[in-house]
Specification:
Layout lengths: L1 H21 L3 H4 L4 H9 L5 E9 L5 E9 H6 L6 H6 L3 H11 L5 H8 L4 H13 L4 E4 L2 E3 L2 H14 L10
Antiparallel strand pairs: 1-2, 3-4
Helix pairs in contact: 6-7, 6-8
Length: about 170
């Protein structure tokens, strides 16, 4: 009878192990909108928006960022005052330059080649637009970087237009 009890216990343990091994990863077991749930626990007033991220770039740099805003403040603001940073992103060459810089290309000569630009005048026209809008900054003679406080926001903007992952519940 002791053997039977041991057999039953072993069978029960094997069943539990099988269930554990077939369970979805930890993030999938939790709520799909885990970040949203965290925000809901902290909400005040009429709502808030939040974006956050932790990024390891191909060049080894690591960035973490979180920014939030009260919804009614955003809705009451004059959005036209903030058009320049968006306008600077509205050209394929500028997006190519930003992507190259985030991937580790920093020198003007390399950026010119990466973007397929024929003249340095063309390159500096686009670099000027990006630096004036705050998406790039000069880090030395002919070298550029995306400012640390702009890395995650830039990727958030990109993720807003690239169809991936969980977006919304439709509510």
């Amino acid at each position: 009878m002791a053997d039977e009890s041991l057999d039953e216990r072993v069978a029960a343990l094997e069943e539990r192990v099988t269930r554990l091994e077939s369970a979805p990863p930890e993030a999938d077991r939790d709520e799909v909108f885990w970040a949203l749930e965290g925000l809901r626990r902290r909400l005040t007033g009429q709502g808030q928006v939040l974006f956050t991220g932790a990024v390891d770039l191909p060049n080894g740099e690591h960035y973490e960022w979180q920014q939030g805003a009260v919804a009614h403040g955003l809705l009451d603001a004059d959005w036209s005052e903030h058009a320049a940073p968006y306008a600077a992103l509205g050209h394929p060459v500028r997006l190519t330059l930003l992507r190259a810089v985030l991937r580790g290309t920093r020198s003007a000569a390399e950026l010119q080649e990466t973007a397929g630009l024929n003249t340095t005048g063309q390159l500096y026209h686009h670099l000027k637009q990006l630096t004036a809008a705050g998406w790039l900054q000069a880090e030395g003679r002919g070298h550029y970087q995306v400012p640390p406080g702009r890395v995650v926001p830039l990727l958030v903007l990109l993720s807003a237009v690239v169809p991936t992952g969980n977006r919304t519940t439709g509510e």
